[in-house]
Automatic annotation (TrEMBL):
Species in which this protein is naturally found: Calonectris borealis (Cory's shearwater)
Alphabetized GO MF terms: netrin receptor activity
Lineage, highest ranks first: Eukaryota, Metazoa, Chordata, Craniata, Vertebrata
Annotated ranges, domain ZU5: 79-219
Domain of life, source organism: Eukaryota
InterPro entries, alphabetized: UNC5A-D, UPA, ZU5_dom
GO biological process entries: axon guidance
Cellular component, GO annotation: membrane
Cited PANTHER family: NETRIN RECEPTOR UNC5, NETRIN RECEPTOR UNC5D
Signal peptide region: none
Name of the protein in question: UNC5D protein
């Protein structure tokens, strides 16, 4: 690679016809750390940092720390961060979401300063995909929309697709002032108005106008995979013999996970095991969730509820709210304070994940 491409002066130059230079400059710019970087309120132990990555196996001794770190996740219904930018530019990050905005050097006129915001919408998106198309990540807004930059900026949006051009057509859409959504570009096709880099966990887009953007995935084969994160929640204390296990299947994006953790915190829920990644194929087969290996004579599960089956369309198209299944367990006696079981999540003729649950239940003093 030409050394000139790696110098800071070449970042975000007007895009030439040579594709290799576009990619090189763009990739270098996404790693810039020397310029100002603005984060909303975050804690050093908060998960996740930066772009989302699939969960790796952690040692049992780190599990408690991992779960405790989730306590710092925000419970706000809208995630928004704001900062003042000048001629030097900088990077704006919404913590725990994988969403960021990079303003390059020179995009803002000298002697000027702009207040720029970045918002992740957690409520139901107004973008309703058609047919088997799915919303692959959060709806993201950057603004103010009336500002105009002289050099393209980079917007990073996480996604849950298993990237493969043979199985997916991925499109970037923008919301118009009239509230309608129009296609800006297809990831596989180059345009003069914007440029895109797709990595396994996020989409990095070069844009020249602020607004509201979202990624749509159009499956073009049954082998298209939507990556789901499977998580199990329960309460650490209860005042009856009944106990509920709540199993979530959500998009494998930091924003979707944060939303579930926030909702669970409001009802006293606790993550019981490290989440796992499920590869859900677009092959029309349903999802089965079951609770296994419940200790006999200590616990029982209500008849006919040990296994729940969810139709394919509900899993594939549930891009607005995470899929949620609850299992009602019961202790035979209050003296039972330990629960050990397995939660199996599998797609028929597809991928399977098993989560081992081991937790203590405390009695709530009346």
């Amino acid at each position: 690679m030409d050394k000139e491409l790696m110098t800071e002066s070449s970042l975000f130059n007007p895009l030439p016809d040579i594709k290799v230079k576009v990619q090189s400059s763009f990739m270098v710019s996404l790693g810039v750390t020397e310029r100002a970087e603005y984060h909303g309120k975050a804690h050093s132990g908060t998960f996740p940092h930066g772009n989302n990555r699939a969960f790796s196996t952690i040692q049992a001794r780190n599990k408690a720390t991992y779960i405790q770190n989730l306590s710092s996740i925000s419970t706000r219904s809208e995630l928004k961060t704001t900062a003042i930018f000048g001629h030097l530019g900088g990077r704006l990050v919404v913590p725990n979401t994988g969403v960021s905005l990079l303003i390059p050097h020179g995009a803002i006129p000298e002697e000027s300063s702009w207040e720029i915001y970045l918002t992740v919408t957690q409520k139901e998106s107004s973008l309703q995909p058609e047919g088997t198309d799915v919303l692959l990540g959060p709806e993201v807004t950057c603004g103010p929309s009336d500002l105009s930059v002289s050099t393209p900026f980079a917007l990073t949006i996480p996604h849950c697709a298993e990237v493969n051009s043979e199985h997916w057509n991925i499109h970037l859409k923008k919301k118009t002032q009239q509230g309608k959504w129009e296609e800006v570009m297809s990831v596989e096709e180059e345009t003069t108005s914007c440029y895109c880099l797709l990595d396994p966990y996020a989409c990095h887009i070069l844009l020249n106008s602020f607004g509201t953007y979202a990624l749509i995935g159009e499956p073009i084969s049954d082998c298209a995979v939507r990556q789901l994160k499977v998580a199990v929640f329960g309460c650490l204390s209860c005042n009856s013999l009944d106990y509920n296990l709540r199993v979530y299947c959500m998009d494998n994006t930091p924003c979707a996970f944060q939303e579930v953790v926030s909702d669970e915190r409001l009802q006293g829920g606790q993550l019981l095991e490290e989440p796992k990644l499920l590869h859900f194929k677009g092959n029309t087969f349903s999802l089965q969730i079951s609770v296994l290996d419940i200790p006999p004579f200590l616990w029982r599960i209500k008849p006919f509820t040990a296994c729940q089956e969810v139709p394919f369309s509900r899993v594939w198209c549930s891009s607005q709210k995470p899929l949620h299944c609850a299992f009602a367990l019961e202790r035979y006696t209050p003296a039972t304070t330990q629960l050990s079981c397995k939660v199996c999540v599998r797609q028929v003729k597809g991928h399977e994940q098993i989560l081992q649950i081991q937790t203590s239940i405390l009695e709530v003093k009346r």
